[in-house]
Amino acid sequence: MAVQPKLDQMLLNMEEKAEDELSFLLSTGVEYFSTAQLMRLKGQWEIKNYYFHKLYKTWVKIGATAPVWLCIWLALDLSGLPIIGLFFLLLFPSALIAFFIGMVIMRRLFPGKGHLDMIGRLINEELSRRNLDIEQ
Questions:
Q1: How many CB atoms sit inside 10 A of residue 53's CB?
Q2: What is the reported pTM?
């Protein structure tokens, strides 16, 4: 009787991983996928990798603006416009908060750059290997 819950849990775990085929590929191995499936997964990987880099750059740029807002506030405050400067002072923590929220969102959407790089490398190596096997 104790075996059934473990089996059910294991099947649920496999189903969840199968939903994200790229992670499933990493956990099972590329040799279990056909060449056509690998080509399709390579396309999925390229899309995910593209969006990962675009989103990452966007969030980093938002975080990098934080010191700029602080400098603008300081310049306005020193030039005798403290009321206008307060607006830029509020942008300072807002940029930092947006950056950290963006990084949390990125972490939920993507397991990480290393994960994506590893999957891409595995797919490319396996497709290259199969291409060489076909030519010989």
A1: 12
A2: 0.69
